[in-house]
Each structure stands twice: as structure tokens, then as C-alpha cells.
Task: structure prediction
Amino acid sequence: MEFIRINNIEDPLFAQMHALLGDIFPPEEVLEFELWKEPLEDSGIRVFVAVHEGKVVGATEYRYYPDWNIAMTDFTIIGQSGLGIGRFLAKQREEDLQRLAQENGKTLFGMFGEIYNPHEREDFTFGGVMAMNPYVRREVLSHLGYKRLDFPYVHPSWKNDGEAVEGLDFCFMPTDERLTEIPSNLVVDFLTDYYSVLPNKPQQWLDMVEALKQKETVTLRPL
Result:
């Protein structure tokens, strides 16, 4: 299996990846094809696909923020079971991020990520791939070391229509597993930066950020 970076919308592998995104995720979670041009050309956004026998069978997008020494997993896709795609992507991503942190003269502090909460919302089919079922993915992230940040979470729809997307938890995987909380201002600064590309923020999201600003820390809870 190959781990190949995509940085051009014209790359044939991108068309395969975008189709896979549409098969797996609900529409409000998928950026339109043409709008991927700038993100793919952004050196800070790392989009890789897992290619097996010439076919894209998985993908992951993530970012490293040197100023905060943290990362964010935008998404991980497992296109089919029985190939070890999840482990392959996680291992390749970890090695890449550790290298980026070392080049920054640091050890990675941790990584943010979103996960669907099937206890709140169960209308997800995820392309019929059981490995992408929210119950399965939640347990996998727990095994990797992710913990739930203890606050009610919503995010702006990637359709940029001002709607709030609910039914998710915002999580953090600390490199130091002994951590029980992280600074609230880190969460606020990150979310503000991350969603700056979406000008139409729902009021629920604005209220959530304001509530976080009133805290000093956010507790890490088990998934």
C-alpha cells in the first residue's frame, strides 16, 4: 500500500478521493470539488491517500501548527475493510507529524479531532463501510488516545450556509497521557483560526466560543 500526498485538484487520485468523501460523509461535511484547489496547494494542509493496486482505498487530511505545536486531524477515511487501512494511515500520519514537530525543535503536544456522537445522532450510513460506523470509530480513537473535551460542541457547516452541525464531540489526543485538561485559550484560538475560512458562523458556534473564553481550562474526559 502506498501513502501518496495530493496537492493538485487535477491529480486523478483527488477525483477518486473526493468521490470517496461523498460516499462516506454526509453532504454538510464535504467541501465542494472546486473549493479544494486552494487547500490542496496550501503547504500547511497535508492530504494523503492510501493507494492499493492503483485505487484510492483510504485518505487522511491533517495539519501541523508550529506556533501551538499541535495538529488537527480533519478526516480519516477507510474505504473498505480487511486491508489494515486505518492502522496504515494512523502510523504514516504519526510519523509525519513527529518529523514536523522535530523540525520545529519540539515534541508534539497533541492533536485535535472531531468524532460523531452516535448517542446523540444515529442517522449516519457512511457508505455502508462498517469501519466508518461512529461506534467503531469512537472506540478506535479512544484506543489511539483521544479524549473528549468537556463542552457542548457544534461547528459551522462546510456548506457555509450559516447552519450549525451538531452530533459531534471535539477531542484532543495529548502526547502526555497524564494530562487531564488543556488551556481553554488554546481551544478558542485553534477553533477561531480553523473555521476562519467560513464567514457565515451560526450563533450557536459564536455562543460556544464566548463560553469557552470564560474558562481557564477544558477538562479531558474519556471517550
Observations:
- The mean pLDDT is 90.
- The two ends are 30 Å apart (CA to CA).
- The CA atoms of residues 207 and 213 lie 10 Å apart.
- The first strand starts at residue 2 and ends at 5.
